Amino acid sequence: MNLNIKKDLASNWFGLLQNAICDDISKLEKNKIKFKSTTWKRNNDKDEGGGEYRIIKDGKIFEKVGVNFSKVYGKFPKQFQNKVPGASKDPRFWASGISVVMHMKNPHIPAMHFNTRYICTTQNWFGGGIDVTPSSNDNNEKNKFHKTLKKMCDRHNKDYYKKYKKWCDEYFYLPHRNETRGIGGIFFDYKKNDFEKDFKFVRDIGVTFQMIFNDIIGKKIKKKWTLKDKEMQYIKRGRYAEFNLLYDRGTKFGLQTGGNVEGILMSLPPIAKWK
């Protein structure tokens, strides 16, 4: 398959998924609050692509939610070329993806994160994942979340879940705290063996994420909470912010390759606290 066709298929899917997820979020908010949409360009002087990030703040359910789509291209800076597979041979790149971060008003509903991307240098690959960060323990929710991910992974390869869960646990880890960011999920990168199979897997992850967040929110939206619960959520959000600013690959990649700063930092919670 021609590389340009692969790029179009991936980018079109990410754009469609952005619309579908935003529609779901609007329905959960009963269409009483609208997304603030911002389009951006990577370079104002020449065509290097860009994207659109959509944000809702202070909803009935979502204290803050961002849904970001991007399609960018150009050349990596010299200091970045040896850090990305294939870029040392040729600094030109193309990248498209979708990223979603949900911070909830009700502290019983976990923060949720999802992203998938397709990156092209002299090599081409998919990456992404889903993870959940609750502020209190709920073993039933945790078990169902992981069972759902395993079932989805098993549709494609019986080895995926164990491999990608381990990768997620290792990736979303704060060494200075000696703790994981949340209850894990799946994380993968440099997936480049078979475009059609890999793209099918990436699409399934997006649809599964829709199912997961609708299910979790539906079950917990009416659960009562206290100020103590909210304080615990703020502390957990502090951990979330620490990881994203210190270790997150997507944050570093976006900031070092001329991405939109506000779109990149949309993942940060609206309010966080430290003891």
Could you outline the blueprint of secondary structure elements for this entry?
Blueprint: H1 3-28, E1 36-41, E2 49-57, E3 62-75, H2 78-81, E4 92-104, E5 111-120, E6 124-133, H3 139-154, H4 160-171, E7 173-174, E8 179-180, E9 185-191, H5 195-220, H6 227-246, H7 249-256, H8 261-264
Antiparallel strand pairs: 1-2, 2-3, 3-4, 4-5, 5-6, 6-9, 7-8
What keyword list fits this structure?
alpha+beta, two-stranded antiparallel sheet, 275 residues, 9 strands, 42% helix, seven-stranded antiparallel sheet, 8 helices, oxygen-dependent coproporphyrinogen oxidase
Unreliable runs: none
> Which H/E pattern describes the elements?
HEEEHEEEHHEEEHHHH
Question: What's the architecture in CATH terms?
Answer: 3-Layer(aba) Sandwich
Biggest pleated-sheet summary = 7 strands, antiparallel
Q: What is the alpha-carbon Rg in Å?
A: 18 Å
The fraction of residues in strands falls at 25-35%
Name the average pLDDT: 94
Strand order of the largest sheet: 1-2-3-4-5-6-9
Number of domains: 1
**Based on CA inertia axes, which overall geometry fits?**
globular
Number of helices: 8
Approximately how much helix is present in the residues?
40-55%
Could you name the CATH topology?
oxygen-dependent coproporphyrinogen oxidase
Structural class: alpha+beta
User: What is the CATH superfamily label?
Assistant: Coproporphyrinogen III oxidase, aerobic
Total E-strand runs: 9
Taking the alpha carbons of the first and last residues, their distance comes to 54 Å
